[in-house]
Amino acid sequence: MEPNNLEIEGRIFSILPLQSGTSKAGNEWKKQDFVLETETQYPKKVCMTMWGEKIEQFNISEGDKVRAAFDIESREYNGRWYTDVKVWRVTKVDGGSGAPSGSTGVPHPADQSNPAIDISSVDDDELPF
Question: Which of 30, 89, 96, 115 suits a disulfide with 20, CB 3.0-4.6 Å?
Fold first, then answer.
């Protein structure tokens, strides 16, 4: 069974530098990580990844309060396991009420007709780890 409705809310703590490259198949790719910090009694920081056109579409800034919908996936590479937290929707949240204040979200990738970026076609030398 696939997990549904994975969401987290918090403030954008940090936006990391844009990364880009070209896969073995010749396709251009870009991704950008950001760190979201929860606003709970014991705050947690979570590094999340945006891919492709979502980087401009979400238009996030450090300090924004957001609700992020995401998928988690782990994969093995050279005997080690890596986990990705891939964001597919970001909604900016009003600081007071917790109500959305201008959605920058998109439908879940499974609901779209466009295929997701296939990271498996990226050359091992281009991977960031």
Answer: 30
Structural domains in the chain plus CATH codes = 7-126 (2.40.50.140)
> pLDDT, tens digit, for every residue of 3-19?
567 999 999 999 999 99
Residue 94 to residue 44: CA distance in whole angstroms: 20
Residues 6+ apart with CB under 8 A from 114: none
Q: Residue type for 18, please?
A: L
84 within 8 A of 92, measured Cβ to Cβ? no
Residues facing 106 on adjacent strands: none
Spatial separation of the C-alpha atoms in residues 76 and 78, rounded to whole Å: 7
**With left for phi above 0 and alpha for psi between -120 and 50, is residue 5 left, alpha or beta?**
left
**Burial bucket for residue 93 (CB in 10 Å: 0-12, 13-18, 19+):** buried
| Secondary structure E strands in 4-107 | 7-15, 19-22, 28-37, 45-51, 65-77, 80-93, 100-103
Q: What is the pTM of this model?
A: 0.70
